[in-house]
Each structure stands twice: as structure tokens, then as C-alpha cells.
Amino acid sequence: xxxxxxxxxxxxxxxxxxxxxxxxxxxxxxxxxxxxxxxxxxxxxxxxxxxxxxxxxxxxxxxxxxxxxxxxxxxxxxxxxxxxxxxxxxxxxxxxxxxxxxxxxxxxxxxxxxxxxxxxxxxxxxxxxxxxxxxxxxxxxxxxxxxxxxxxxxxxxxxxxxxxxxxxxxxxxxxxxxxxxxxxxxxxxxxxxxxxxxxxxxxxxxxxxxxxxxxxxxxxxxxxxxxxxxxxxxxxxxxxxxxxxxxxxxxxxxxxxxxxxxxxxxxxxxxxxx
Length: 274
What we know:
The protein is an alpha+beta fold. The protein contains 4 helices and 13 strands. The protein has a 13-stranded antiparallel sheet, sandwiched between helices. A hairpin with a 5-residue loop joins strand 9 and strand 10. The protein starts with a helix and ends in a 5-residue tail after the last strand.
């Protein structure tokens, strides 16, 4: 029995070491992806923005000089499928301003143990959703042309968190659409489009994407109407941004959120001196 116990203990130890080494490799890859979103210096602000978009961005900047990337942390909860329990998570995110892209890394814990790590990202023209057990072993992945469009749409939808990107990112195509504004981004998988709706104060209160690729509970893919809502605009980290948000799909029963989040910390990388 002692020999069996020692063998089991040895196997567990080896598994923990291998898992830790793999998790470290994944963490380094995520850190490299985040670093790639930070430009050396901010470029010149655009002069071709729709009036309400420019006014929104300047109000969010609060007189600051544009930076090279936004960094934030969140507390949130997610629902994998309609009717499932909500799962608590903590997350950090880097949003490029002159560089088009973002990297959102979330951790779901069982007590103090980080059981699941999720990377949701768009960088260098491609999107990926990567889910790993203990931050090491891949449980699920979403990539390819549909992921490119879906994750590019997320970058566009989260532009209210980065007024610097509104002013600096020349990859974004802005078009006035009545009381709303559409922002578009070309990807290898197609064009991502999001429509932003403003409230009476001139803040972005809601967004929609009419045909965002979405993974269904049975694993198939289909385009769905995607919607997000922003609230509680406050000053944090030198910017005025929405602290609370929820995102979901419009189903037969109406808007069904699957994500609810609150921004806890926020900062902007300063541009390198000339």
C-alpha cells in the first residue's frame, strides 16, 4: 500500500509540475500578446470623426494627452448558455489605441484555485477565444474567419472604454446613421460592424451588431443580433468611461444578457517622448 501511495503521490507531483510549466508558457504568450497591443507612441488625432463621436471622445479624454493603450480590470459574471448558472470571474484587459486589438483574460475560481482561464482577443487581424483548465490545458477554442469578425466586433463594441482609440485608430471607419453612428473594421474574415446609440447627454448608451457570429449550445455557428448596454459613466484613471456594462444576444424572447461587468481599475500607457 505504501508503494502504491508513493506512486500516486509521484504522479500527482509530476502532473502539478507539468501543469504549472504549461500554465507559465500560456501566461507568457498572453503577456506577449498584450505587449504587442501597446504602440511606441501615439499618433496624431483624427480630424474626420462624426461630430457626436468626436465630442464623446474628447469628453472621455478629460483634457489628457492620448496614450498608447488602455489597461483595466473587472469583476464580472457570465452565463455560458441561457438558463445556466451565472459564474463569477475576475478579468484584466488591454485595449490598443493606435494598434487595433485587445486581449481580455478572465479567471474563474473555485475558492482560491484558478480553475478556468479564458483568453478573448483580437490582434494582428485575427480573433481567438481560448479556454484552458488551470490556465494550461485547452478545453475549447474558437478561431478562424468567423472568430476574426466576432472578436473585431468586440473591439468596436468596447470603444467607449478607450476614447484614445476613437481619436487615434485610423483603421476604424465611422459613418453617421441618423441618431446613431456605425463603426466598421475590415478583417480577413469579413467586415465587422457595430452601431452605437447615444443618450441625451451624448454618452454611448447602447450598441448593436446585426450579424455577429455566435457559437450555439450545440456547437454550431450562426449569426445573431448582438447587443450591449453601458451605464454609470465616471472618472477613473484620468478618463471618463462607463463603469458598468452588460452584453447579450437578442433571442426570440428578447435581449438575453450573458455578461455583466464592472470596471474596477483603469489606466492608460503614456506615449514615449519624441
